[in-house]
Amino acid sequence: MVKKIRKNIGKTISNKLIRLWILLLDRRNKINVKKLSEKKVLIADCEKIGNYIFKTPLIRGLKKSGFHVTVMGSHITKELLEADPYIDDAIITRCYRKKSSDIFRKAAVALKYRGYFSHYIETTGSVYLRELLFMRLLSPMTIIGTERKRDYQLKAMNISVPREDHNIDTSISILNSMGIREQREYHIGRMPSAKYSSFKTEKPLILYNGRASVESRSIDPAVERELTSTLEEIPYINFRRIEKEDSLHDLVDLIDRSALVITVDTGISHIASALKKGVLINNYNRSVAPVTPNLLECSFTPEAVSTILKSIFSPAQPAAA
């Protein structure tokens, strides 16, 4: 009972603080109409692989419409962003984990580029002090984003689109609000990789990954051992676990050579979908599911996975005489 009361008090205080910083920071952004012909856009929240790939239609559409495209990324996505032909510049921050201390890092970036961008696009759903402060300090000519949770409508946003059921569709909606049309499909920044250039296999290459950035989405080690031991014994596939690579481009190249990727919900599932590979996944949030027609969801038990692999890759048996 005491714990519940404390939780309710904490929630009330949090809501009041949110309303306070909105009152202090959320001011209507005055558009300088004479300067809107400028096309220098900054796209936020590309620090994680999935978040970057969700926004590739947005990035591509803006670039093809004549924008100079800059994105905010991290050391995790740096290689992909720098190789993306539709991205002109990447601002690399240390905000991958989205910690409270990121408010200072983001404030420093905003002050460095204050007044530089004509357009700023930010799709974070929650009302965070660091995002509001960043918008005010960055001072772009126009701010475009999505409606917030808790029914908050930010005055600072000149264009605010409803959040769609899937993140890729939110990117498309933002483009539509700007009068831009683009296809609903991913692309991915990549460079040639020498590591797997001579890699060949006569059997279908099946890749496996059971690790995610959070423990709750990772496979239990005991379950994983049982599953991988079974898959290693299947004679008609070349089974390989995905290991840590020195370069993301090596990982992308390896996935591109595969016939199917078995993975938990993480960046690897989105890389595979951007490469139009089959993805077998244990569970996922529908709003961030890999966008591919070759997506299968199943329990990661030896029996379930083996049955699916057999149905797809097992050689046809000769008919009995």
TrEMBL record:
Highest taxon of source: Bacteria
SUPFAM superfamilies listed in its UniProt record: UDP-Glycosyltransferase/glycogen phosphorylase (SSF53756)
Cellular component GO terms held in the UniProt record: cytosol
A matching Pfam family: Glyco_transf_9
GO-annotated molecular function: ADP-heptose-lipopolysaccharide heptosyltransferase activity
Keyword Hydrolase: no
One GO BP: lipopolysaccharide core region biosynthetic process
Keywords, alphabetical: Glycosyltransferase, Transferase
Protein name: ADP-heptose:LPS heptosyltransferase
Organism of provenance: Propionigenium maris DSM 9537
